[in-house]
């Protein structure tokens, strides 16, 4: 009896501090954010008017919201396609051809993943800089007139110019995940295929893809989720959503509405939309990517 | 006996793969090297239109002292180090205790609690940004490093708990039982036996959380408006925004380089731990 009481006291003292801390500084803000989305509020406490779902109705009529949604999903698609192709290719190349210098490539490829999005954003702003940037200088080598394209300053190139550094910064991580998955495939399968005369591409589609599908699925879902929840840092650093809101994503628009224009209710409603978008999109992708599980007999 | 045709094409494929791997390595490394070159240049060299050029001698090492003193990067460094160190240690303590209980002392609802923490990893942090700002304001924690420390600690918990639960589950039960038989209580057993055993897991989450905190920008910007309290990412963003009014590219590049270097050095030293920590979160 005494022993059990001691055990319970131990459990409680180990759980409670963490639980309280987490509840106050993570759970409460999220629930409170959903609550604020039902109000019209500038941030000063006197004037907080309940407006029901009005903020959500307003969002339907806000063209910037639609631009932001479109941009979010463009980034999701671009990143999923770009990162998965590059990461899969590199992972297959290194594991299947048993190239030398695996450790070297692994170390280099992962490096951008540990650098702050701010540093990456600022760095790439300078690569794209119309006057002193690297990109225009390289392109100018092939033209008579020096090129002065403001990559981030014009609407038709700005979002693409944000997409590329996001891919650049993301590949290494998924490359590592996929490489680990491929290394766990028994080599005997490849040896058997080799004897049967299967080409490399046949081996890739019939052995590698089915057996690492689970890991590919996880990678894609992870890209989708992190992009919808976190791509705004890169956007904010590189363009602040401009020019003329053309690169706005939901996260950057939330920040602008909340902390630049003090529409706290509306900004919170955007936050709720981000939450639903990311949950629903992850679910849909999960459905789309479902495939019969391959079991090794 | 292989037919010669696939053999030949295999060699081509192999060579092509190697070339592409090298190209990507250059694509990754070059922007970083370019930053290093730029950090030693003056403005006139930036305007030459040859960004790949080597910095002219004498190299402008003064860019570094300039950004360290005039742009207060020295202060930002101290702020970032304080915030990162304390919040990483706090997160280790708060997550290891909960994770240990969840892994070893199942009770009614322990599964629910586990998934409760786990599901928080899917919630976009930005949804809580506005309420968190007003909460910190009410608690008088705005513009304070302690406010940032608290927020970063809370932010790190779900991932840390998730990793540590699976880590504690892999540890053998015999050592704990031996400790109990020797008369050690639950607390002694945890701190003297289990924590040392879990060291490599703790290092992994510690480094992961430290990296995330060191690199974090949005919360650092929203919750701190006092330049004396800026962390490095906020300092860099502010400095680059100022470039619209005065152009000092050399110092900015020096600042970028200085903020990257500690991270890259830590990465070189703890590569295995970092890779293990980063991949652990996504495997779920």
Give the gist of this structure:
The complex is a heterodimer of chains A (297) and B (284). With 297 residues, chain A is mainly alpha-helical.
The percent of residues in helical segments of chain A reads over 70%
CATH top-level class of chain A: Mainly Alpha
Compute the number of structural domains of chain A: 1
Q: What's the total number of strands of chain B?
A: 0
The CATH architecture of the largest domain in chain B can be named as Orthogonal Bundle
Q: Kindly name the structural category of chain B.
A: mainly alpha
Roughly how many Å apart are the termini of chain A? 50 Å
Number of strand elements of chain A: 2
Arrangement of strands in the largest sheet of chain A: 1-2
The radius of gyration of chain B is 24 Å
What top-tier CATH class of the largest domain in chain B fits best?
A: Mainly Alpha
Count of helical regions of chain A: 12
The total of helices of chain B stands at 14
Mean of pLDDT of chain B: 88
Task: Note down, in words, how this protein is organized.
The complex is a heterodimer of chains A (297) and B (284). Chain A has a single domain (63-288), classed as Orthogonal Bundle (MetI-like fold). Helices cover 73% and strands 2% of the residues of chain A. Chain A has helices at 2-36, 54-60, 63-96, 102-110, 117-128, 134-140, 155-183, 187-195, 200-230, 232-238, 250-260, 264-288, and strands spanning 39-41, 48-50. Chain A has a two-stranded antiparallel sheet. The model of chain A has no long low-confidence stretch (mean pLDDT 89). Helix content of chain B is 75%, strand content 0%. The longest helix of chain B has 35 residues, at 4-38. In chain B, helix 3 crosses helix 13 (249-269) and helix 10 (199-215) crosses helix 14 (271-283). With 284 residues, chain B is mainly α. Chain B has two domains: 4-63; 64-283, MetI-like (MetI-like fold, Orthogonal Bundle). Chain B is globular, with a radius of gyration of 24 Å. At the A-B interface, helix 1, helix 3, helix 4, helix 5 and helix 6 of A face helix 1, helix 4, helix 6, helix 7 and helix 9 of B.
């Amino acid at each position: 009896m005494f022993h059990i009481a001691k055990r319970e006291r131990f459990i409680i003292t180990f759980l409670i501090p963490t639980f309280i801390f987490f509840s106050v500084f993570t759970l409460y803000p999220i629930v409170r954010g959903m609550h604020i989305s039902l109000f019209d509020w500038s941030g000063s406490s006197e004037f907080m008017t309940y407006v029901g779902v009005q903020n959500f109705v307003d969002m339907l009529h806000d063209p910037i919201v639609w631009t932001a949604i479109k941009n979010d999903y463009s980034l999701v698609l671009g990143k999923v396609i770009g990162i998965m192709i590059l990461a899969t290719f590199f992972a297959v190349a290194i594991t299947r051809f048993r190239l030398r210098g695996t450790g070297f490539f692994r170390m280099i490829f992962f490096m951008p993943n540990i650098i702050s999005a701010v540093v990456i954003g600022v760095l790439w702003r300078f690569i794209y800089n119309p006057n002193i940037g690297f990109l225009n200088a390289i392109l100018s080598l092939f033209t008579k007139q020096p090129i002065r394209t403001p990559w981030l300053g014009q609407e038709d190139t700005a979002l693409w110019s944000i997409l590329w550094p996001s891919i650049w910064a993301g590949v290494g991580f998924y490359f590592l995940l996929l490489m680990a998955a491929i290394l766990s495939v028994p080599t005997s399968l490849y040896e058997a295929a080799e004897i049967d005369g299967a080409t490399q591409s046949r081996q890739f589609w019939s052995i590698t893809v089915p057996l690492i599908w689970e890991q590919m699925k996880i990678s894609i879902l992870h890209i989708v989720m992190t992009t919808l929840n976190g791509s705004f840092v890169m956007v904010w650093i590189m363009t602040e959503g401009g020019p003329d809101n053309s690169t706005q994503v939901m996260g950057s628009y939330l920040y602008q509405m909340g902390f630049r224009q003090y529409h706290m209710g509306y900004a919170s409603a955007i936050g709720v939309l981000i939450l639903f978008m990311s949950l629903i999109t992850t679910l849909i992708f999960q459905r789309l990517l479902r495939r019969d599980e391959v079991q090794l007999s | 006996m292989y037919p010669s045709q696939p053999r030949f094409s295999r060699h081509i494929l192999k060579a092509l793969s190697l070339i592409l791997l090298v190209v990507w390595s250059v694509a990754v490394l070059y922007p970083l090297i370019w930053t290093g070159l730029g950090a030693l240049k003056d403005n006139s060299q930036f305007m030459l239109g040859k960004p790949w050029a080597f910095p002219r001698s004498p190299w402008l090492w003064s860019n570094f002292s300039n950004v360290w003193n005039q742009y207060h990067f020295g202060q930002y460094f101290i702020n970032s180090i304080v915030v990162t160190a304390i919040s990483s240690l706090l997160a280790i303590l708060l997550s290891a205790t909960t994770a240990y209980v969840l892994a070893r002392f199942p009770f009614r609802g322990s599964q629910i609690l586990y998934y409760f923490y786990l599901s928080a990893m899917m919630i976009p942090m930005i949804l809580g940004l506005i309420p968190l700002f007003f909460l910190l304001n009410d608690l008088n924690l705005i513009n304070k490093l302690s406010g940032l420390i608290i927020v970063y600690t809370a932010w790190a918990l779900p991932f840390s708990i998730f990793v540590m639960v699976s880590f504690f589950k892999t540890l053998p039960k015999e050592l704990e039982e031996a400790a109990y038989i020797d008369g050690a209580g639950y607390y002694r057993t945890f701190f003297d036996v289990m924590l040392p055993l879990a060291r490599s897991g703790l290092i992994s989450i510690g480094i992961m959380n430290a990296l995330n905190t060191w690199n974090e920008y949005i919360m650092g910007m929203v919750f701190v408006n006092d330049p004396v309290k800026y962390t490095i990412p906020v300092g860099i963003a502010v400095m680059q925004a100022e470039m619209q009014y005065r152009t000092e590219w050399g110092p900015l590049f020096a600042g970028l380089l200085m903020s990257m270097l500690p991270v890259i050095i830590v990465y070189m030293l703890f590569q295995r731990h970092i890779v293990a920590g980063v991949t652990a979160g996504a495997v779920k």
